[in-house]
Structure prediction request, 194 residues.
Amino acid sequence: MYDWQEGAEKYIKALSSSDPTPGGGSAAAVCGAIGAALALMAINTTLKLKKTPEENKAVLSAAAEELEKLQKKFNKLSVSDAEKYQSYIDLKKAKKSEEELNKAVIEAAQVCVDCSKVCLSAIDALVSVQGKISKIIISDALCAAHIFRAALKCCVENMLINRDWIKDEAMLSILETSILSAAQKLGSSNDNNR
Prediction:
């Protein structure tokens, strides 16, 4: 067994349980973190290669720095999603007021919005260097791009379902804007060209 396998197996086991958390929002964020890690591996491998042109290194390094920040955000969002949804469940079980439940739903929905924004940033960061990544490792960068898109699609699914439960007009507007931004990115062909 590899050192990393235990953590992956624990998370997968937690997802497959009948417990409501972690769920789809957390999984989307974990996918985003995995995509960022894979993109970082492709970029860092390219940076180590002697044949990488010097003029590409600054751009690749900047993208790596950005993806490291985004990976940390994804990690935090995976935990935050589980916490916010669990809070909503606990409030519902305790038969708290409609106002408290609405606030909890808004907080949970905001995590999905935040995750979608991080996905969009991750896609853009990777697209900015995709042509500069070595051909020997480009498949990993392309896989990372697919993972980011899958995570973004999961965020959209969560935002769509959250939209049905939210009564706050401001939050509904935020959700609609985020869903539209994600749909535009997912519909564009510029971020998935080889």
Observations:
- The CA atoms of residues 106 and 168 lie 8 Å apart.
- The helical segments are 5-16, 24-48, 54-93, 98-127, 138-163, 169-187.
